[in-house]
Amino acid sequence: MTIRPPSIRPLPDLMLEPLVRAGLMEDLGRGGDLTTDVTLGADNPAAHAVLSARQAGVVAGLDMARLAFTLMDPAIEFTVAAPDGTHVTPGQVIASVRGPARGILSGERVALNFLSHLCGIATATAQVAAAVEPFGVKVSCTRKTMPGMRAIQKYAVRAGGGANHRFGLDDAILIKDNHLAIAGGIRPALTRARAAAGHLVCIELEVDTLEQLAEGLEVGGVDVFLLDNMTPEQLRKAVSMIDHRAVAEASGGVTPENAATIAATGIDLISMGWLTHSVRAMDIGLDYQP
């Protein structure tokens, strides 16, 4: 049974299984696992293996790994040792896998691909979250996710202690530079947004300059200002101008090294696209036990 920290709610298998099935089908191709077939022959002995961290990080994606094995063979038992959200050290066992060897061997790569990627996202999120924690600033991902993987990538951000931005085009209004260029500017874009938005729909306006911010504040109706690629000095001025009338979100060029400097400007939220679109996978191995 998987046990998680109380703040991390699991995604239902109903959402995860199609992704894992697609990964397994892609790997098995048209002929199945030829290597396992020729090396084991007709045998399918019981095997025991452990998923181990080969570097420090934060765990995320164990349900994906579990499904990769149990969809190959329901007789496989998957036991969690370090639940999603756990900070682990090199060599620490994350989970164990027991059961028919064929299913373990055939599901290994898909399990590790999902798990390593999602642990990488959780680990990177945790690094930035730790840097900005003294300032009470939240860390968020963006919509820059791999097609089909948005739900699990955003879940990994939560496992690392971060928050989620909007999930799609349909759950919030985010007016960006190209919208402004085509709509004719901030005033007409905001006026139309305010007239059409439902009472539960948030309106966010991306601004590149303090002049744009001033215009957005004058027009009004903005719930969140996305302060894009501003310097720390500009961010401090922007926070003063907003004066708690809206959420102040900083984005663009944020790294674990400069996150604290950005957070110290008084903003409420830092968002980063690289958390999901180009994060480095965490090194995890499947080690067979005698």
UniProtKB/TrEMBL annotation:
Record GO biological process: NAD+ biosynthetic process; quinolinate catabolic process
Listed EC numbers: 2.4.2.19
Pathway where this protein functions: Cofactor biosynthesis; NAD(+) biosynthesis; nicotinate D-ribonucleotide from quinolinate: step 1/1
Molecular functions per Gene Ontology: nicotinate-nucleotide diphosphorylase (carboxylating) activity
Keyword tags: Glycosyltransferase, Pyridine nucleotide biosynthesis, Transferase
Top-level lineage group: Bacteria
Quinolinate phosphoribosyl transferase N-terminal domain: residues covered: 33-119
Entries under PANTHER family matching the protein: NICOTINATE-NUCLEOTIDE PYROPHOSPHORYLASE [CARBOXYLATING]
Family stated for the protein in its record: Belongs to the NadC/ModD family.
Name the record gives this protein: Probable nicotinate-nucleotide pyrophosphorylase [carboxylating]
